[in-house]
Amino acid sequence: MIIERYHTIKKDEFKDKIVLITGANRGFGLAITMDLARAGATVIMLGRDLGSLEYAYDAVVDAGLTEPILYPLDLEGATPENYQELQDNILSQFGKLDGVVHNASILGAQMPIEQYDIKLWYSTLQINLSAPFMLTQFLIPALSKSNDARVIFMSSSVGREARAYWGAYSVSKFGIEGFAKTLSEELEKTHISVNTVNPGKMRTEMRRAAYPAEDSSKVPLPEEKSQAIVYLLSSLSPKINGEQLSIAD
Ligand SMILES: NC(=O)c1ccc[n+]([C@@H]2O[C@H](COP(=O)([O-])OP(=O)(O)OC[C@H]3O[C@@H](n4cnc5c(N)ncnc54)[C@H](OP(=O)(O)O)[C@@H]3O)[C@@H](O)[C@H]2O)c1
């Protein structure tokens, strides 16, 4: 299903809504954070580096948007205890969670499987697949307290159709597609909906690393695609569950 890029989002559409975004300090995660904060959401900005989270926080607050919460956590090394602490913090501070955007990822290496660095394989699978599993497991109790909780896993075209040399990144995105589908079926009769989104190409550091020779001026900015994610998170948009969504290019 294709989701249009642009949507009209009302100023207070997300008033009293709490949404957690991983990799919120830059790239697509920051663009989504800005749009959600513009719509009145309290965004829990999760990122691995406090310095760059603080920099992003200033961008949100200086724009006069709803003040976000910073949550430094490295998804590569995070333990069940770290996720339990996050769950406790969310439940004690807000009593619920209305949305999660599993956005943080690394590209890994682009090379043949035959030569793929084994340590990098593990890191990529950990950040892109196992961390979203653990995070989701520990956030379900808070999501269950919302009357309309929406979970989005960021996927990729190479998570739906195999392409040579995309290695662990591609495998992690195929994994996230399978994980999201399984979860969506388990939660079918609840107020929690689960979908994957292929955002398509965006002018970010990941894209530059993947396509260094590309003319980046022709690649859409993440700010040109973030409204589609806000639309999907909004209770004013129809509830969709278990679908593979793509943002229009
Ligand atoms: N850009 C595209 O063209 C494109 C196309 C298809 C799909 N996607 C997907 O869209 C999502 C966003 O991509 P992007 O282009 O915005 O990527 P990006 O610019 O590379 O940003 C990745 C984000 O993930 C964070 N991150 C990486 N490792 C982490 C860790 N261990 N713990 C916590 N956070 C970590 C990064 O934090 P640091 O700043 O600390 O590194 C950064 O905030 C990804 O899931 C990607 O796979 C992107």
CATH architecture: 3-Layer(aba) Sandwich
User: How much of the residues is beta strand, in percent?
Assistant: 15-25%
Distance between the termini: 13 Å
What shape does the CA trace take?
A: globular
Succession of helices and strands: EEHEHEHEHEHEHHE
Largest sheet: 8 strands, parallel
Low-confidence stretches: none
CATH homology superfamily? NAD(P)-binding Rossmann-like Domain
Could you give the count of β-strands?
A: 8
Description of the molecule:
The longest helix has 26 residues, at 118-143. An 8-stranded parallel beta sheet has the order 1-8-7-6-5-2-3-4, sandwiched between helices. The two termini are 13 Å apart. The protein is globular, with a radius of gyration of 17 Å. The chain has one domain: 3-Layer(aba) Sandwich (Rossmann fold), CATH 3.40.50.720. Strand 3, helix 2 and strand 4 (69-72) form a beta-alpha-beta unit. The chain has 7 helices and 8 strands, in the order ββαβαβαβαβαβααβ. It has helices at residues 27-38, 50-62, 80-93, 118-143, 167-186, 205-210, 226-233; strands at 2-3, 18-22, 42-47, 69-72, 99-102, 149-154, 192-198, 244-247. The mean pLDDT is 97. 40% of the residues lie in helices and 15% in strands. The chain is of the alpha/beta class. NADP nicotinamide-adenine-dinucleotide phosphate (NAP) binds at residues 22-23, 25-29, 47-49, 52, 74-76, 103-106, 127, 154, 156, 199, 201-202, 204-207, 222.
Outline:
With about 250 residues, the protein is α/β, with parallel strands linked by helices. It has helices at about 25-40, 50-60, 80-95, 120-145, 165-185, 205-210, 225-235, and strands at about 1-5, 20, 40-45, 70, 100, 150-155, 190-200, 245.
